[in-house]
Amino acid sequence: MNKKLLGRLVLLAATAVTHSALAVYPTGSGTNYITTYDAAHYGNAGAITFNDWGYTGPNGSSVNDFVVPGTSGFDPNNIGQRQKVVTYGVSQNPTTGAVTDNLDWNTPDPAKRVQADDLSTFYNNSSMDGTVNFYRWAYTTPAGSTFNNMQIDKAGNYFVARNDMKFGFYDYFQYRDTTGVTPNQTSDTAINFQPYAISDARGWCGSVLNSNPNGVGMMAGQVTFDFAFDAYLGNGHPTPGAGGGTQIVPGFIMRSYGDYIVNMGSTLLTYRGSAVMNNTNPLTGDLDPNYQNKVSFLGGGVVPKGVWVTAGSYNLDGTRKLNADSTWQVTVASGTNLCDPAADKIRASDGAHCYQNSFAGYGFLMRADGTRLLYEINPTGHSNYVTTDPAAYASIAAVPVPAAVWLFGSGLFGLAGLLRRKHNLH
To answer: Which of the ends of the chain has fewer CB neighbours closer than 10 A, N or C?
Structure first.
């Protein structure tokens, strides 16, 4: 293990609990929803503000709904459509090691000053297109992260199985100076991350409000799921455990609409971003056939101190149960999610373990730009609200169905071909 880098992590963990007053920023024209984070549960105090642009989904679905109102949730016997999302971003040639990116760099988000994870360098006026902010650092979303077999029932309920969400390895930051003063740079980050879903995703999608769900109409949605990410020190994708360990974030939300402000107490720890609604031109904010099925998902969160995980997440000898790719086969326990690692160990009611995160108090904003592929519409219609336009079937007829059927959103925080909306926060 790189002891020098590990020492930096310890220093950063101590720095993260520094408290300062929260700034207030003006947001968009919709309703603001504020989630606060206290030092007792997160090791740092702060807030996340989400502005909904005034958008509502099927049957009046809104920010706090993950089941369409008036329904009992996703109905697997009444599926209206299936889709897939794949991200744009950074990729590396496994033979030559060359790094390329396929972002358009038309982000509406304000430029940001970010710190390199060696703590000695700052990237000024950085474009945040397709980028994840984590603590003081920034990582460009990997290309090819996928949400497969995204199922939407006729009422508009989303369902994506945990194994159908595949996230790339966060290993690079593509620096683009928005002022044009500094040449483009690719930074091979010293602290790397592998996110993965640890629960199924559920939510709602507004595509059921359009007669042609594959047409150029206003569509957006949201999903929630539990996710983990493994932190690694050094280059490449080392063996599990060689680094900062696993971090668990329950109830993460990704949305394809709205503005986010993540404020964890200082300028460097404040991130602002806007989604790009499906089919929207990021330069004008208008629906545009040239941007058909190009969208952006966004989600913000804070790593808590401790999370209750099921006893079944461990083997009988106390070691972690691992997946084939060496990620942890962990499940967040039902009931109260958060725990205090200093006081809680094993919960008497169900044997759940209190798992301690090493990055407690670190806020993040995950952006995922990509393309949506609608590859199946129910022949009896895709929606309870509108009649399916015959043109919808014709529009997907020429789309090759992938050999493996799979999908999701947001980005994670992955998704293919997502462009950013010109919807600035000031």
So the answer is: C
